[in-house]
Amino acid sequence: MHEPTLPPGLLFGTATAAYQVEGAATEGGRGPSIWDTYCRTPGRVARGESGDVACDHYHRYAEDVALLADLGVDLYRFSVSWPRVQPEGKGEANPEGLAFYDRLVDTLLGAGIEPVLTLYHWDLPQALEDEGGWRTRETAHRFGDYTRIVAERLGDRVNRWITLNEPFCSAFVGHAVGRHAPGTREGTPALAAAHHLLLAHGTAVKELRAADAGQVGITLNPDHLLPATSSEADRAAVERARTLHNRTWFDPLFTGAYPDNEKETWGGLADGSYRREGDLETIGQPLDFLGVNFYRPIMLRDAPHTEPDPALRTAVDIGAEQVAFDGVRHTTMGWPVVPRSFEDLLVDLDRRYPGLPPILITENGSAEPDEPDAAGRVHDRDRVDYLRDHLSALARAIDAGVDVRGYFVWSLLDNFEWAYGYERRFGLVRVDYRTLERHPKDSYHWYRDHLKAHRFRRVQEG
Ligand code: GBH
């Protein structure tokens, strides 16, 4: 059988996010975000943990950039903390906050690593949440102002910009499942949040274009959704889920229209009251790339709604429930390992949305037990297998015609895994949370060798 190899031009990196690694939550003039509030609310995050200290990357960024340089990556994806730049989410910029990202970017460039900047990875300033947060249209305009500040400061050195990370999570895990900040269970307001996130994206694109900041994209987490059986009911459940997870974002961004099955998915909750004339034009501006995060597929079956009264349902109560995958390994997140789904998802998106911009895989990785041996080394064979098999699947997708230009491992470091706290470890580098020491795992060395071989082919094949 023909096994395709990755094109020599493919770029490689690792990814992190501000709240998950920075710590220094009350230093440098940073204001509180909705995640600070959420972590302080009893019962929300495992063991009452928070990002107060995290990996202390705010102070140890130079050591982390040295790890990246030694790893040999082309790119590093990080996010800017909005409340570090604007402690209250509006008004004057905080010079100390901007100075931190200035130092980080310069250190990366000095090490020959290209910074890829995400403007929003879930840490909304609490002051904006107090005024309604993503449920209100105002927040999209505030996001435009924040974008302008960051673009004016870093636009001369950062050439790839990601407006939002996984708006699905901000809108629906935050306002309907309730497992992310702000942690509510709502219906129409969650759908309004989804719309305002899209509007914030479009508003940021305008600002980035005006600042001539470089390449602009958005990171989505499209799910590969499979019906549990071939029954009509299960397939209809998957189509509702496809709208909730994927089409809500892809359709307005890349087809200029809202999904045509919103009523089947949400009934009267999707009342469109939050939409205005002209919004689709703002949302659907051309992008230079699409970021895709992929971890695992989801299998679904038709199921009764949790809430019988349609008017009282949350936006994720769509009459579909997850079914377990049999016969495959599961990571410590409980996620099934199905590399084939990565290939299928990319090919499927490519066929459904002709004219999609080039793709960057902005996150892929796995959480593993990672117990260090007596010498303190972590032999994370399962993570190496996961990454190798997903890169093979990526090579097949590219071979099938999908235009993928880059790939980032989530994550460089073990870090604060949101509601799961520090117990779930995604890093190529182990973090000892008592000493904050960094210890590269076997997967770090494996990725380094992979990158070396890739660079060699790049030189050989031009
Ligand atoms: C990404 O999200 C994030 O961008 C990153 O910050 C994170 O650390 C990483 O992956 C690993 O988790 O509450 O039942 O609705 C991953 C995709 C999709 C995983 C939504 C959690 C919520 C499940 N996420 N999902 S539920």
Classify the oligomer: single chain
Q: Which ligands appear in the coordinates?
A: ligand GBH
Instruction: Give the helix proportion (percent range).
Output: 40-55%
What overall form do the CA principal axes indicate?
A: globular
How would you characterize the largest beta sheet?
8 strands, parallel, barrel
Rg, nearest Å = 21 Å
- Give the SSE string: EHHHEHHEHHEHHEEHHHEEEHEHEEEH
- Poorly predicted ranges (pLDDT <50, ≥5 residues)? none
**Rounded mean pLDDT score:** 98
Number of strands: 13
Distance between the termini: 26 Å
Give the DSSP E fraction (strand runs of 2 or more residues): 5-15%
Counted by DSSP, the helix tally is 15
The class by helix and strand makeup works out as alpha/beta
With strands numbered from the N-terminus, the spatial order across the biggest sheet is 1-2-3-4-5-7-10-11
Catalytic activity: Hydrolysis of terminal, non-reducing beta-D-glucosyl residues with release of beta-D-glucose
Family: Belongs to the glycosyl hydrolase 1 family.
Keywords: Carbohydrate metabolism, Cellulose degradation, Glycosidase, Hydrolase, Polysaccharide degradation
Pfam family, one: Glyco_hydro_1
